[in-house]
Design a protein that fits this description.
The complex is a heterodimer of chains A (about 550) and B (about 675).
Chain A: H1 6-30, H2 34-37, E1 42-48, E2 53-58, H3 70-77, E3 88-91, E4 104-113, E5 116-126, E6 148-152, E7 155-156, H4 158-166, H5 171-199, H6 201-224, E8 229-237, E9 246-255, E10 258-264, H7 277-292, E11 306-309, H8 327-342, E12 359-366, E13 373-380, H9 408-414, E14 417-424, E15 440-446, E16 450-455, E17 476-480, E18 490-493, E19 498-502, H10 517-525, H11 531-538
Parallel strand pairs in A: 10-11
Antiparallel strand pairs in A: 1-2, 1-5, 3-4, 3-6, 4-5, 6-7, 8-9, 9-10, 12-13, 12-16, 14-15, 15-19, 16-18, 17-19
Chain B: E1 3-9, E2 13-20, E3 26-32, H1 38-53, E4 60-67, H2 69-75, E5 82-87, H3 93-96, E6 121-124, E7 127-128, E8 134-136, H4 140-153, E9 157-161, H5 170-182, E10 187-190, H6 191-194, H7 200-231, E11 237-240, E12 246-248, H8 249-254, H9 262-278, E13 283-288, E14 293-299, E15 302-303, E16 305-311, E17 314-321, E18 323-326, E19 332-336, E20 342-348, H10 367-374, E21 381-382, E22 387-388, H11 391-405, H12 409-431, E23 443-447, H13 451-462, E24 466-469, H14 476-480, E25 486-497, H15 503-524, E26 531-541, E27 548-551, H16 561-577, E28 586-597, E29 618-626, E30 631-639, E31 648-650, E32 653-657, E33 660-664, E34 668-672, E35 678-682
Parallel strand pairs in B: 1-4, 4-11, 5-6, 5-9, 9-10, 13-23, 23-24, 30-32
Antiparallel strand pairs in B: 1-2, 2-3, 7-8, 11-12, 13-14, 14-15, 14-18, 16-17, 19-20, 21-22, 24-35, 25-28, 26-27, 26-28, 29-30, 31-34, 32-33, 34-35
Helix pairs in contact in B: 1-7, 2-7, 4-5, 10-11, 10-12, 11-12, 12-13
Classes of the chains: A alpha+beta (about 550), B alpha+beta (about 675).
Chain lengths: ~550, ~675
C-alpha cells in the first residue's frame, strides 16, 4: 500500500464526492417516476472491492446502509473471476441482496481499471411499484430479486428484464427508471476510471482506505467526548397494521471511543413493519452520526466503532420470511429511542421525539382515459422535535427520510386526485421552553375510484418531550364524504370521497414555565397554539 | 455625450468604470461603499470619477449599475412586512415548501425564515383545476376582507398567489384589482405577472420574495435616481438583472426578484465581452474574490440561463445566468479538523481582519497567507504598495498548521492551495461535466482579486490548456456594465405533447410572448433595428420532471418546426443523459422569449504589436516555491502595466499589477494579445 498524506486524501475525497453527486444528478434528472425525479428517493455510491462504501450521495439517510450488504451478496453468488466489464447486477432482496425492502432496486456495475476490477459504481432507486399487495410475509410484497446480471458484458439480458417488468404494475416507468440508473452508473464508471488515469490506481485505492480511516477517527473522537456509562430508554409502538402497542427499548453502552447498542423488541409479526438487521444498522449509523458529528463522511469507516445487537427474529432484526415494506416508521422510532437514551449523557446534542413515523399513502387505480393501471406513492412529513436551544422545525421530514413532496400542480396533472388542503396542524407542537415542530394535514379527494393504503405510526402514543417539555399531537387518519372506514390502513375511495391524513407533531424541550413570553404571544398570534390552551399550559397571565 | 459609466457597488468597494467613446480611454475610480445607503457612495464615486477625467455629468450618455441591494436585503432579512393572499387550504405552503429539512444530519440547521408570518397569510375560497376550469369561483368579498386586514396589520407589500394562476390569471387579476382599490399604497406582487410558471411552491416563493424586496428596491432606486439627477446626469440609468442584461430603473423597481444576482452576473457579461473581442467563444468564467468564487460556463459565447435557482435559501423562478458559487477565496481559512484532514473554508477572514499577513488580528492561516509563504504573492506588499504584508506572521501561521498535520512548512502551504483548488474544481465540474460539457474544450477566464493567482493550478486540475487574464481583472464587473445589452425575458407555461395538434398552442404562446416583448421594446424606447428576439421552449419526455431548454428555429412557426424541435431535444437529451427514449412522447412545457435591445457599447481598440521582447516590463526576480519542482525557483517578475501587445515570455514567471497577481507556471507560456489581455497556454 502506498503512503498518502492528509492533503492528497482531501483532494481525492473531493473528486470522489463530485463523482457520486454527478451520478445522483443524472439519475434524478433522467428518471421518469415521480418518486425519483421529484421526491429524490434514490442514492448513488462508489464501493471498494471488499464492499466498503467509499463515498455516497444519499438523499435520505435510510439509504446510508441500504446497500451495505450488496457487494457481499454479489460475491457470495458470483465468482469474481467471471465478472466482466459491462456486467450490471440488479437486486432488491432484503434477505439475499442486502437491501431493506423490495421497492429499493439496486444496480451495481464493476469498474475496471487497466484490466483489473477496482471498485463498484452502485445506485439505488425506490421504484414506486409493488402496490396494493399483502404484507403477511415478503413473498406477498413484490418480486424478490437476488443480485443477478441485468447486463452481461454490456448486453442487456432481455429475458431477465422481461421477468422483472411483468411483475410490476407500471412497467413503463420501471423501464425508464432502469435506464436512468444505467446512465448514472455509466457516468460513475467513466469518471472513476478517469480519476485513476490521473492519479494512478494505487493512489486512488490508498486514498479510499485513508478516507475510511478518517471517518472512523472522527467517529471515535465524537464518541470519546460522550461520558462513559450505560444509558437506557423505553417507548411503545403502534401502527395501523397491528392492534394495540408494542414495547421497544434500548441500552447504549459508551466506553471510551466505542459504543454498543442493544435493542429489545417483540418477535417479528405478519405485517410489513419489520426491520432487517441492515435497516437497524442504517438507523444506528444515522442516529450516532447525527449526535456525534454531522460532518462525518458517509462511508463505511464510521461503522467501525459501533456494535449493535437485537434478538434475532424480533421486529428490529427480522429473519426470512418476515415482510419489511413499511420498515421506515419503526426505524424512525429506533432513532427516537437512541436520542431518548443519550439525552441524559449529552442533553444538548439530542432533540425531543419527532413525529415518529414516515407516513406514506399509496393510491392505485385505473386511468379514466385508457384504463391503464396507475400507482402513486407519497410520504408526508410532520413535526421535528424541539432542540435544547430553539423550537423544532414545523412540517418537515425527519431522521431517516427527507423526500420532497410532489407539487400539487404536478400531482393533479398526472393522477385523478385533487388535493384539498395541505397545512400545518394547530396545536400539534408540544409546549415547552422550546416548542416542538407542528404536524401536517393533507386532504385528498379521489376523482375516480381507487384503492388506498396508509402507513404510519403514533396514532396512540404521542411524541414525548424532554426535560419537562410536553408531548406533541398524535397522528390520525379519517375518511369523509361517505367513504368506508379503512381496515389495517387499507381501503378504497369512490369518486368524490376524501381521505384526511394528520401526521404526528413533536415533543417540547424544557419546562413550559421557562418559555419566553414573546414566543408565547407569537405562537398565539400565528395559531400554533389556541389562546385558551396557552393559558392552561403557560399560565393564566398569558394573552391578557 | 461621450462618456459611458459602469458602477459596480459591492460590500467593500464601489468601482466606477468610465469609458470615453471618442478616445477609447478607460478610467477606473474606486471609493469605499456606504452600506447604509449605497446610493451615497455611488454618487460620490461618479462625481469624483467625472472630475478625475475632467468630464461633466451632462457628457454622460449611458449609466449602467450592478447592485447587491436586493441580495443583501434577502440575506439579512431586511425586507418589508409582507402579507399573502392565497388559495383556501394552502397558506402554510410557504412554510412547508417541499417539506424537506435543511440538512440531513445537523439537527441545529434551520430553514430560512418564512418571509410572511402565519397570521399575515390569509386564505380565500377559490380553486382552479389544472386545465384552467373553475372548481370554486373566487370569493371577492373574502379578498376584500383579507386586504383590509393586511392593511390594518400594517404591511407594506402584498403577494397574491393562487393554485394554477399560471394557467388562468383572472382570479389573481380580480384579487389584484381589489388590492389596488382597497390599499393602493401597497406594493403588489402577483404570481402570474412575476413568474407565470408551473410548480406552486417555487412560484409562491418567487412572488413573496418579490413583494418582500419591492419597497426596498423602489426606495433605493428612487434615492439613486434623485442623486444622479442632482449631479446633472441626464442619461436614463439602467440596472443589471440576474440574467446578465440591463433594464431601466422603472422595470427593476417592479420586479426586484429579477435582480438578486445582479452583482455576479455582470462579471460574466464582462468575461463574455472580452472573450468575444479576443475571439474565444467557449469560456469558463472564474471569478475568485476574498470569500467566495463564482464560476460560469459560456458555450458558443453564451452563458446558459436557468429558470430557477435557490438563492440564499429561497427558491426563485426568474431567468438567471447559471452561476455556481463556492465558499473559497483568498481569505478562506485553513484548518485541520478532528479527523486530521486539512480543510479550507468556507469560513473566511474576509477583508477585515483579513489574512494573518495583514497583521489586523487574525491568527488563522488563509489561502493568501499560503501564497505569501510560497512567494507567489509579493512577500512585502500588496495592492501596488498600499497594503504592507507581514511575511513572518504568515510563516508562523503556516508553521502552526504544519505541526498539526505533521508536514513540512512549504508542503503545507502548497497543500492549502491544492485543497482550495479541489473545492473550486468541484464547482466547475458542476457547471461543466454535470451539464454535459468537457472543461478541456474551454478557456479559463480568470478574474477577481484572486483568480489570476490560482488559475494555473485550477487549469491543471481540470486539464484546461488555456487561460485568459483580462487587462483589469479586479474591476471586470464594472467593465461588464459598459458592455451589456438591454434585456428582458418572458415566459409562459402551457403543457402540451409535441404533436401536430400542439402547433396552434405553440403559435399562440409565442404570439403572446412576442406581444409582451414588443411592449417592452416600446417602453424602453429601443429602435426596431436594435431589437432581437430569441425563442426557446423547455422540453422533456412525458413523465420526466426536469426540462431541457431547446432553441426554437427563427422565422414563422409551422409544421416544419415540430420535427426540428424533436431532433434538437433528442440530441440534447443524448448528450446529457446518454440515451434517447424514442417511443416516449415528448412534452412542451414552458415557452420563453428573450428580448434584447442592442445599446451602443464600449469598444476597445487593438494595440499595435510591440514584438515579443518583454524585457521592458521586467521589474526583478523573486524566489517562488513551485509545486512542480518541490522547491524555490528564482522567477522573473513582470509589471503588467508595462507589458505591450505581442510580448511573450515563458513560465515560471510572476506578473504583478495593482489589483491582481498572475502565476505563469513552468511549462506554460504567456503572451499579451492585442487588447492587452494576457494569454497563458501550455507550451
Amino acid at each position: 500500500m502506498i503512503e498518502i498524506d492528509p492533503i492528497a486524501t482531501e483532494v481525492i475525497g473531493s473528486a470522489l464526492s463530485s463523482i457520486v453527486e454527478e451520478m445522483g444528478e443524472a439519475l434524478i434528472k433522467a428518471s421518469h417516476s415521480t418518486n425519483i425525479k421529484e421526491r429524490r428517493d434514490c442514492s448513488t455510491a462508489l464501493f471498494d472491492l471488499d464492499g466498503n462504501t467509499l463515498c455516497q450521495a444519499e438523499h435520505i439517510p435510510v439509504h446510508l446502509g441500504s446497500f451495505l450488504g450488496l457487494i457481499a451478496h454479489i460475491r457470495k453468488r458470483h465468482n469474481q473471476a467471471d465478472i466482466r466489464p459491462g456486467d450490471v447486477f440488479c437486486g432488491n432482496d432484503a434477505y439475499e441482496g442486502g437491501g431493506t425492502h423490495l421497492p429499493d432496486i439496486v444496480l451495481a456495475e464493476p469498474i475496471f481499471v487497466d484490466g483489473a476490477m477496482t471498485a463498484w459504481a452502485v445506485n439505488l432507486a425506490h421504484h414506486a411499484d409493488f402496490a396494493d399487495r399483502g404484507h403477511a410475509h415478503i413473498y406477498q410484497e413484490g418480486l424478490r430479486i437476488p443480485p443477478i446480471r441485468l447486463y452481461k458484458a454490456g448486453v442487456l439480458q432481455t429475458d431477465v428484464q422481461e421477468l422483472i417488468l411483468l411483475n410490476c404494475q407500471v412497467p413503463k416507468e420501471r423501464l425508464s427508471d432502469f435506464r436512468a440508473q444505467m446512465a448514472a452508473n455509466r457516468l460513475g464508471v467513466q469518471r472513476f476510471q478517469a480519476l485513476c488515469g490521473k492519479y494512478g490506481r494505487a493512489t486512488i485505492l490508498a486514498a479510499g482506505a485513508a478516507l475510511l480511516d478518517y471517518a472512523e477517527r472522527k467517529m471515535r473522537a465524537g464518541i470519546a467526548a460522550i461520558p462513559d456509562g450505560v444509558y437506557r430508554f423505553a417507548d411503545r409502538y403502534d401502527c395501523p397494521e397491528i392492534d394495540g402497542e408494542m414495547d421497544l427499548s434500548c441500552e447504549i453502552t459508551v466506553r471510551g471511543d466505542a459504543m454498543h447498542l442493544h435493542f429489545e423488541a417483540p418477535p417479528q409479526v405478519r405485517a410489513g413493519l419489520n426491520m432487517t438487521m441492515t435497516a437497524l444498522l442504517s438507523t444506528v449509523y444515522y442516529a450516532i452520526k447525527m449526535v456525534v458529528d454531522p460532518t462525518i463522511l458517509p462511508n463505511a469507516g464510521l461503522a467501525r466503532p459501533l456494535t449493535v445487537s437485537a434478538p434475532e427474529g424480533s421486529i428490529v432484526n427480522c429473519v426470512h420470511p418476515a415482510a419489511v415494506n413499511g420498515r421506515l416508521s419503526l426505524c424512525q422510532r429506533i432513532v427516537d429511542l437512541i436520542l431518548g437514551a443519550l439525552a441524559e449523557a449529552v442533553p444538548d446534542r439530542v432533540i425531543a421525539a419527532c413525529n415518529g413515523a414516515c407516513f406514506s399513502i399509496t393510491f392505485a387505480g385505473h386511468q379514466p382515459a385508457d384504463n391503464r393501471l396507475w400507482v402513486y406513492l407519497e410520504t408526508i412529513g410532520g413535526g421535528s422535535g424541539a432542540r435544547f436551544n430553539k423550537d423544532g422545525l414545523d412540517g418537515v421530514h425527519v431522521h431517516m427520510t427527507n423526500t420532497s413532496n410532489l407539487p400539487v400542480e404536478a400531482l393533479e396533472l398526472e393522477y385523478p386526485l385533487t388535493l384539498m388542503r395541505y397545512e400545518l396542524v394547530d396545536g400539534s407542537g408540544g409546549a415547552g421552553q422550546y416548542r416542538g415542530g407542528m404536524a401536517i394535514r393533507r386532504v385528498y379527494r379521489a376523482n375516480h375510484d381507487c384503492r388506498v393504503r396508509v402507513d404510519g405510526a403514533r396514532l396512540l402514543s404521542p411524541p414525548w418531550g424532554l426535560f419537562g417539555g410536553l408531548p406533541g399531537g398524535r397522528a390520525g387518519i379519517a375518511v369523509h364524504g361517505g367513504a368506508q372506514a379503512f381496515v389495517r390502513g387499507n381501503g378504497a375511495l369512490r369518486a368524490g370521497e376524501t381521505i384526511e391524513v394528520v401526521t404526528g407533531g413533536s415533543g417540547g424541550y424544557g419546562p413550559p414555565a421557562a418559555r419566553a413570553p414573546a414566543a408565547i404571544t407569537r405562537d398565539i398570534a400565528e395559531g400554533a397554539i389556541d389562546a385558551a390552551v396557552a393559558r392552561a399550559v403557560y399560565g393564566p397571565a398569558i394573552g391578557s | 455625450m461621450a462618456w459611458r459609466i459602469g458602477v459596480d457597488s459591492g460590500g467593500t468597494f464601489t468601482d466606477v468604470c468610465l469609458f470615453d467613446d471618442a478616445t477609447g480611454r478607460v478610467a477606473v475610480w474606486k471609493v469605499s461603499s456606504t452600506p447604509a445607503d449605497p446610493s451615497e457612495g455611488i454618487a460620490r464615486g461618479v462625481a469624483e470619477g467625472l472630475a478625475e477625467v475632467g468630464a461633466a455629468a451632462a457628457d454622460v450618455g449611458y449609466f449602467g449599475h450592478g447592485t447587491t441591494v436586493a441580495t443583501n436585503a434577502l440575506i439579512q432579512h431586511r425586507g418589508v412586512k409582507t402579507g399573502l393572499i392565497t388559495t383556501d387550504g394552502f397558506r402554510d405552503l410557504l412554510e412547508i415548501g417541499r417539506q424537506k429539512r435543511p440538512d440531513l444530519y445537523d439537527m441545529q440547521a434551520d430553514k430560512p425564515p418564512t418571509l410572511v408570518s402565519r397570521d399575515l397569510r390569509l386564505e380565500v375560497a377559490e380553486r382552479l383545476r389544472h386545465d384552467g376550469s373553475v372548481e370554486i369561483p373566487l370569493d371577492e368579498a373574502a379578498v376584500r376582507r383579507a386586504v383590509r386586514r393586511l392593511r390594518e396589520a400594517g404591511v407594506e407589500a402584498v403577494a397574491i398567489c393562487f393554485l394554477y394562476g399560471f394557467v388562468r390569471s383572472d382570479h389573481e387579476q380580480t384579487a389584484a384589482r381589489i388590492l389596488a382599490e382597497e390599499f393602493p399604497a401597497a406594493f403588489a406582487s402577483i404570481s402570474h405577472a412575476v413568474a407565470p410558471e408551473f410548480r406552486e411552491f417555487e412560484r409562491l416563493s418567487t412572488t413573496v420574495v418579490n413583494a418582500y424586496l419591492g419597497p426596498i428596491m423602489r426606495r433605493y432606486i428612487g434615492r439613486l435616481a434623485e442623486r444622479l439627477t442632482a449631479l446633472g446626469l441626464t442619461a436614463t440609468p439602467h440596472l443589471t438583472q440576474s440574467n446578465g442584461g440591463v433594464i431601466g430603473f422603472e422595470q427593476a423597481a417592479r420586479l426586484p426578484v429579477r435582480t438578486v444576482l445582479s452583482g455576479p452576473s455582470t462579471g460574466v457579461v464582462g468575461a463574455q465581452a472580452i472573450g468575444r473581442a479576443v475571439g474565444f467563444a467557449d469560456l469558463i468564467a472564474f471569478d475568485m474574490g476574498g470569500t467566495s468564487t463564482d464560476v460560469a460556463l459560456l458555450a458558443g459565447g453564451a452563458c446558459r440561463l436557468t429558470g430557477e435557482a435557490v438563492v440564499h435559501g429561497y427558491p426563485i423562478k426568474a431567468p438567471m445566468l447559471d452561476i455556481h458559487t463556492v465558499g473559497a477565496g483568498g481569505g478562506s481559512i485553513a484548518f485541520v479538523d478532528n479527523g486530521g484532514l486539512l480543510k479550507v473554508g468556507p469560513r473566511s477572514a474576509g477583508a477585515d481582519p483579513g489574512p494573518v499577513c495583514y497583521a489586523k488580528g487574525n491568527d488563522e492561516a488563509t489561502v493568501t497567507d499560503a501564497n505569501v509563504v510560497l512567494g507567489t504573492l509579493n512577500p512585502a506588499f500588496l495592492l501596488g504598495g498600499r497594503m504592507p504584508v507581514r511575511h513572518d506572521l504568515a510563516v508562523a501561521a503556516i508553521d502552526r498548521l504544519a505541526a498539526v498535520v505533521g508536514m513540512e512548512r512549504m508542503a503545507t502551504a502548497s497543500g492549502i492551495l491544492s485543497v482550495v483548488t479541489a473545492n473550486m474544481a468541484r464547482a466547475i465540474r458542476v457547471i461543466s461535466v454535470q451539464r454535459g460539457h468537457d472543461p478541456r474544450d474551454y478557456t479559463l477566464m480568470a478574474f477577481g482579486g484572486a483568480g489570476p493567482l490560482h488559475a494555473a493550478r485550477l487549469a491543471r486540475e481540470l486539464e484546461i490548456r488555456r487561460i485568459l487574464v483580462p487587462r483589469t481583472p479586479g474591476i471586470l464587473c464594472a467593465m461588464g456594465l459598459l458592455l451589456t445589452d438591454l434585456r428582458a425575458d418572458f415566459a409562459v407555461t402551457r403543457l402540451a405533447v409535441l404533436a401536430p395538434a400542439a402547433l396552434d398552442g405553440l403559435r399562440a404562446a409565442f404570439a403572446t410572448l412576442d406581444t409582451m416583448a414588443a411592449e417592452w421594446f416600446a417602453a424602453e424606447g429601443i429602435a426596431p433595428a436594435d431589437r432581437a428576439i430569441a425563442r426557446t421552449v423547455d422540453m422533456r419526455y412525458a413523465g420526466q420532471n426536469y426540462e431541457l431548454p431547446i432553441a426554437v428555429p427563427d422565422g414563422p412557426i409551422d409544421a416544419a418546426t415540430l420535427p426540428v424541435l424533436a431532433e434538437r431535444f433528442a440530441e440534447a437529451h443524448r448528450r446529457l443523459y446518454g440515451f434517447v427514449a424514442e417511443e416516449d412522447p415528448v412534452q412542451l412545457v414552458t415557452f420563453r422569449v428573450e428580448a434584447s435591445g442592442a445599446v451602443p457599447k464600449a469598444t476597445f481598440a487593438a494595440q499595435p504589436d510591440a514584438g515579443p521582447d518583454a524585457a521592458g516590463a521586467l521589474i526583478g526576480t523573486r524566489a517562488v516555491w513551485l509545486a512542480e519542482t518541490g522547491g524555490f525557483v528564482s522567477c522573473p517578475v513582470y509589471d503588467r502595466d508595462r507589458l505591450r501587445s505581442g510580448n511573450c515570455f515563458a513560465g515560471p514567471a510572476i506578473v504583478e499589477q495593482m489589483d491582481a497577481t498572475t502565476v505563469v507556471p513552468p511549462g506554460w507560456t504567456a503572451r499579451v494579445e492585442p487588447f492587452l489581455n494576457l494569454l497563458l497556454e501550455v507550451a
